[in-house]
Every structure is written in structure tokens, then in C-alpha cells.
Specification:
67 residues, mainly alpha, elongated
Length: 67
């Protein structure tokens, strides 16, 4: 697995978790999904992603997006 795929999988899980928590616990949990979406949006333009840095330290191979 590359860093790119790990970041996409992690972001997808965070978004789904936020939606489920918003539906089952409290509507403000949707902010978690919004945060993940905004982070993905800014990383598309800046290349900076905290999750990618964590996955790199864990030893995953870089992909084309996060070198």
C-alpha cells in the first residue's frame, strides 16, 4: 500500500465516521466530515497533509501524490 492509498482510505473512513456519528449521536458530528473534506481540498493544492506525514513515518512507500 502506498501513502496515497492510505491517505484516501483514512479520509474516507473519517468522512463515513462523521456521517454515522452525525446521524446517530448529534448533528454537529458532521463537522468531522467537513474537516476531512477541507483537509483533502487544501492538500490537493499545497501537497501538505498531516496524515501523509504520519504514514510516511510508519514506513509506507510514497506514491505519485505525496513524495
Amino acid at each position: 500500500m502506498t501513502i496515497d492509498r492510505a491517505v484516501f482510505a483514512f479520509a474516507g473512513c473519517v468522512i463515513l465516521l462523521g456521517v454515522v456519528l452525525a446521524y446517530t449521536v448529534h448533528p454537529w458530528w458532521i463537522a468531522l466530515s467537513v474537516f476531512a473534506g477541507l483537509n483533502m481540498f487544501q492538500s490537493a493544492f499545497t501537497g501538505f497533509c498531516p496524515a501523509a506525514m504520519v504514514f510516511k513515518k510508519l514506513g509506507l512507500k510514497p506514491g505519485p501524490a505525496f513524495r
